[in-house]
Amino acid sequence: MLLHLGMVIIGLIMVSFAFWAIHYQTGFLEKLGGIIAPLGVLITILGVLLLAVPGFFSSSFKDIIAIFLK
Asked: Domain of 8?
């Protein structure tokens, strides 16, 4: 649970840094911000998903998909 909350916090920090770097910096930091922004969004969304549905990637989810695909 704390790992998922940490993912959300780290992702939001990454997105905040990316917005700052893209807006105020030039050169390398601007390019780094452009790379970090989508990664931060992805990590934040994944963390929120795991907080909302704790067993999302567990074996029971795989079993549900296997039954659906039969």
From this structure: 2-69
Number of domains the chain is built from:
1
Which residues have C-beta within 8 Å of that of residue 53, sequence separation ≥ 6? none
Only one residue has tokens 């990637």, namely 57
- Which alpha helices (H) appear in 1-70, and where do they start and end? 2-24, 28-52, 59-69
CA-nearest of 34, 6, 38, 41 to 20 is 34
Q: Could you read off the pLDDT of 9-33 as tens digits, one per residue?
A: 999 999 999 999 989 888 898 999 9
Q: Quickly tell me which residue has 């959300």 as its tokens.
A: 8
pLDDT in tens, 33-48: 999 999 999 999 999 9
